[in-house]
């Protein structure tokens, strides 16, 4: 599933490829992928140009040369973008295509049809209606502390709740807690100010590392938990040597927390 780092990479890709090009037409293969009806989308977007982007968590917003027309993209389970010329084959699963007057196209890739696209007129209104909290890269320590401490639950499901902080998925939360040396089942009320500071620093560390490496997990630093998660899913016989904490060598534990498979070091995350 595209997480915050992947969507940030998509945002950068769109900005470097598809801005300031008048849109000739919009082609939609499956209207169920739209959050606004096709006529509204077509009338709102044709003749306009994309002028910039903004991302909050896993949500990508694309501005147009009409301030009241904003395109919202959610990439679902397997969404992606593809910018290509009309002279080449249409990318597989490009179920929504924006055709530009210069002969290039922007395809919205929807392999499993969980992806969504539509028009909104206010980002703030949309975020409030969807109960989406501050972005993981933008949230301040004081905001994060206040949002966590008002909840009476375990820290992992609270961090995964998009109303707490936007953009943290399952593996990211495991990595954040590992880097901060906080157990995923710690009650939120038990976290000290120092632990909250470590948590905030770890959110930025994990997200910025993932973006820097273009979400290619095998390229992450050796001290990251993601390597244990990857090897645990491997079909090969030599995975046993890769199931230990990269810092202390303790065997990594795996259990269900908040209904999600969770990895942690039982020695360092007490």
UniProtKB/TrEMBL annotation:
Going by the entry's taxonomy, the superkingdom of the source organism is recorded as: Bacteria
Which reaction(s) does its UniProt entry say it catalyses? Hydrolysis of DNA containing ring-opened 7-methylguanine residues, releasing 2,6-diamino-4-hydroxy-5-(N-methyl)formamidopyrimidine
The cofactor named in the record is:
Zn(2+)
Q: List each copy of the Formamidopyrimidine-DNA glycosylase catalytic domain by range.
A: 2-115
UniProtKB keywords: DNA damage, DNA repair, DNA-binding, Glycosidase, Hydrolase, Lyase, Multifunctional enzyme
Pfam families membership: Fapy_DNA_glyco, H2TH, zf-FPG_IleRS
| Keyword flag Secreted | no
Keyword Cell membrane set for record: no
SUPFAM superfamilies per UniProt = Glucocorticoid receptor-like (DNA-binding domain) (SSF57716), N-terminal domain of MutM-like DNA repair proteins (SSF81624), S13-like H2TH domain (SSF46946)
PANTHER family membership: FORMAMIDOPYRIMIDINE-DNA GLYCOSYLASE (PTHR22993)
Recorded family membership: Belongs to the FPG family.
Name this polypeptide is given: Formamidopyrimidine-DNA glycosylase
Organism expressing this protein natively: Nibrella saemangeumensis
Question: The organism's lineage?
Answer: Bacteria, Pseudomonadati, Bacteroidota, Cytophagia, Cytophagales
